[in-house]
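Problem 3 from the worked examples.
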Amino acid sequence: MYSVGEKVDDMIIQSYEGMTENYVRLFKVKCAICGAEKVIQYSRLNSHKCTFHNVKTCDYCHSADKNIGLTINDYTIIKRLSRRYKTSAYYLARCNVCGMEFETTIGNFKRYGTKHENCTCHIPKNENLKRFRKIYSCMRYRTTNPKYTEWYLYGGRGISSEYYADFMVFYKELFRSYLEHIEKYGIKDTTLDRIDCNGNYEKGNVRWATCREQVLNQRRYYEKS
């Protein structure tokens, strides 16, 4: 039995990963040369198969991988990952517009959407994301739709949200602070507020505020101060 930290040829034992349903022992190893990590069976480790840097599953072939650097529309493959799905390798892709990164197989990368508009599909799941999206939709609706009942208070008097026309800009700039405000004040007391109530929804003029702060920042109070 191997111990954590022990070196077998080019591989360093990282951890014991347990057994499969067939009682095959698994170990997580890391290549001392390139840093690639993988999980291999005890028998392969003990027989010195897959324990050298120049085996197919190691990172030696990654630098020559023709898929790295591949750009389709707004996305680029930037790195090959160690995990696999059956016979398909996983890659890390990045949006050249907003910087969103996500994992994908090369087949899915070529087959599905590769435009910036699809970045919202790659946002990590979060229980507070649904309400965050609703806040965004309401902001856009009251500044772009003349049919909104209180249009005269927003878009009707020139208040714009065009800076946040792209949801990913809104997400990148405000989601983390949204979660921090929720943690401190609770979800029901977290609202989107304009610091200057006569200004637009744009960077530097938006914040998360409590309901009380929202009321005290209305025009009737703002203009008096």
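Problem 4, a separate protein:
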Amino acid sequence: MCGQSMNNYNYPDEKIIVTKEAEEKKDNIPVELPWRWCLVGNIVKSHEYGESKDVLIGTKHFQPGTKVYVAPANWGDGYERIVVIGCPRRSRQYIEIVMKSDYVVNFRLQKVYQPFLLKMMEESEYTWWNNSEEDQQAILSLIGALESDRLSKSFNERLDNWKRRYADILDFDELDNKWQHCPSDPESSEVAGERIT
């Protein structure tokens, strides 16, 4: 230990832990944009997985409720798979992954100021949002589309479940035929007395 400072000595079983703040100071690389608009959401509490419909908590990489930053569409799959940045289950180091958009809920618009996130977005191989008004409007319209899509999926799933539950009681083909032949104004029709309630 002669001539060696106590601060520079590494014990064999010592783990060096580097915090995000230390990484930011070490890199100190200027980022082009001081902030960016971003679509932000949270990981679902639980979801069904596989043919047996097992219920899983969160996702493989993220705990339920984890805040994730969502990139714009990078390919033409109807936003079914998305690029996200978030803090994973077993690490404090943020990661960027591609995942199903069904696993993210509570979409909202937010400004991102954190230098380490801006740096990740800048260095990403995927396209990320900017701080322009066009991107702000694009995110707002995307939020509306995602919410309406989610509502229609939810309605269709409930309708399918209802049909499966009552399939042995009701003849759905007969009901569908009656509904197709129903006029839009039942009061003006001869078959108003046969209305399905």
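Solution to problem 4. The chain is about 30% helix and 20% strand. Confidence is low (pLDDT under 50) at residues 1-19.
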